[in-house]
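Protocol step 4 of 5: obtain the predicted structure for the target chain.
Materials: sequence only (see below). No template structures provided, no constraints applied. The aim of this step is simply to have a reference model before the mutagenesis design in step 5. Sequence pasted as it appears in the construct record:
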Amino acid sequence: MSFGRIILLFLLFVSACSGIDPVSIKMGKAESLVASNPDSALKVMASIPMEQVNTPALKANFILLYVQILERNNLPLVGESYMEDAVAYFSRYGNGEQKMLSAFYLGKLYAQDGNLYGAMEQYVLAEAAYRELPESSLAKSYPFWNNIMARLNIGKGDIYLQRLNYAAALKMYGMAAASLAGERANPLLMEVNGKMGDAYRSEGDFREALDSYNAARDLAEENGRGKELLRFLTASEGVNFSLGHPSKRVLAELDSIYAVYCNGKPPVGDYLLLSRLYLDSGNLTKARFYAKEYERLNSDIPDLQRSRLYSLLVSIESARADYKEALSYERRYNAIMESIMEQEKQNSISQVEQAYFTRQLQLENETIKKGNRLLTIIYSLIFLMVAGGAVALVLVWRKKIRRKNIQVEEYLEAMRSSEMSNRKLLSQLDIHKENEKHLKELLENRFAELRELAGTYYEFGFSKKMQKKVEQLLSFKSVDGDMFAIIEEVVNAKNNNVSARVREAYPSISEDNIRLLNLIYAGFSPQEISVIVNDTPQNIYVRKSRLKRKIAPLIEQNPDMDW
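Step 4 output (structure tokens):
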């Protein structure tokens, strides 16, 4: 691969104007340093004036070499728009290696930017270009191409994992692990075992997850990678908790791990695990602290991780009896899950792969048909001369068709597994909606208590002692905030945002009338309302009638608002 690129740079050097000569020389020097001295290669590339990179061919080769050097220096990849131009250029004028590498790195740039569908499309294009490479080219640089394909499958697995298609993610990770099985010193093998553990854990297969984490831990110990070893050790303890180990025992194990590997201070990545463990052990203060700290320190996390955070906070706030806050997190969780499901319905990752290979199969079938018609004409003219060659050609084409058909079946299976994952998610969403309904009923129970107190006051109001006691209980200030605000929130939740619609249609309406409206929709009688707002029942009847006349036009437009 490197030899071919050096030849291309030499041709550019010969054919281009004299201003490009130093650019070609420097790029050749940088390429020779990539493997052995990547930081020096980066300095050479930085010394090239960009105004001298002034032809499409030079620009395409420059950005392809530059992103590889950035990657070898463990720096974030940049140059997405330039790489898009390079992919377009190489698709017309490049060789198979350039097509494959440019599509692969554009996929990495897209994935880094959160464009999962664009990333998957580029990975599929890169894989197709790889399959077209001659066996001789692959044999010359087998370790390099094996590493690239392993990383490509890891990238596809990461996308499937983010879209909650665990079966497809595990398949991609398994392919990467199989290709790296003999390279125990390769950090990719450790990484892919850890990712398989994450996928199994997300799918609920905790035994397999534990085996994968243990394999990754062994590789981290062999290669002296302390940071990764810490992650796999704590992940294994999280799986042990899921398998039924007592939370206090797991917390003790984690404390001993932190004492050895990070001076007793847990890493931020473990905050969600610690929050779940403290919740299970009954320490709500620490559980809430770690969950809130994780939310504060990770403002930009994937939707899947954020949904898990919100689900955990729902459990914590419910345990603390802060139902208003729990309801808020429940709504945020549902919004994220509905967004994920809607995106998956509109543009399935599996469909990206399936559409590409179906299109390729159709094109190849059409090419075969044209080739067969041409061969028929040739047979009629010089049958004896070309019979052997024609048969060989047909056999080659049929072999390619069988290979493509096998690929199509594989991706159809992946799509079916994606549909099963979607059904699981829908069932989980139904469960959380039921939880939200339960929270609303808990809040309404508090209104029932308020209604009972108001009725007692109305019936026995002439007892000064009773009157004083009930007035104390009817105080609308509580640890949860203003009771009128809570009533309005529940009324909006149960009656399709009725109060919000009245506020929007009548911005000048008084807060007293809004409170009266909310009490009516909450089901309080005029006598109970008179106690709550300290007015006579007769006045309540009059105010109720006036309020209904005032918002009558809005009720006519929205019959569901009538009381």
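Step 4 remarks: Residues 56 and 289 are 54 Å apart (CA to CA). The longest strand covers residues 477-478.
Proceed to step 5.
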